[in-house]
């Protein structure tokens, strides 16, 4: 299997690798949500911080309405949290795309998730909120 590192010295995955990895995340989150409905401690704390602020809850709801790619992939905040559960518990990976026979680094998996959210007006407002950034910082540091 070939390793393709030509795009930005290997830091940016191909669209096929990106889509395949994200599809795996969405499927994994669906399976996880049925088998284990509770969240990991860092994600649970993030959820509590978001749900404690009605403005952040509304903005997250709006993000899922405004992001054109999301409805079929991430239907709501709960599914988003299950995807976060998968990401915070694993190191970054290489994605092997079977049909193309190549493998590429994914980079920062959480970036892929937030990248989908960021191109909305609701995310613009959400990402500028101090409370959201504090909750995200705790999630990234994985400590209270």
TrEMBL record:
InterPro entries noted in UniProt: PsiD-like
Organism name: Rhizoctonia solani
Positions of the L-tryptophan decarboxylase PsiD-like domain: 41-140
A Pfam short name: PSDC
Name by which UniProt lists this protein: L-tryptophan decarboxylase PsiD-like domain-containing protein
């Amino acid at each position: 299997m070939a390793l393709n590192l030509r795009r930005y010295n290997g830091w940016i995955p191909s669209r096929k690798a990106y889509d395949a990895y994200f599809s795996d995340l969405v499927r994994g989150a669906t399976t996880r949500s049925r088998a284990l409905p509770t969240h990991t401690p860092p994600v649970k704390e993030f959820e509590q911080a978001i749900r404690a602020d009605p403005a952040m809850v509304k903005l997250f709801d709006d993000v899922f309405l405004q992001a054109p790619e999301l409805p079929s992939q991430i239907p709501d905040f709960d599914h988003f949290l299950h995807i976060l559960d998968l990401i915070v518990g694993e190191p970054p990976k290489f994605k092997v795309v079977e049909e193309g026979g190549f493998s590429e680094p994914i980079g920062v998996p959480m970036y892929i998730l937030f990248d989908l959210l960021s191109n909305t007006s609701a995310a613009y407002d959400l990402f500028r909120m101090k409370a959201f950034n504090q909750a995200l910082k705790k999630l990234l540091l994985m400590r209270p």
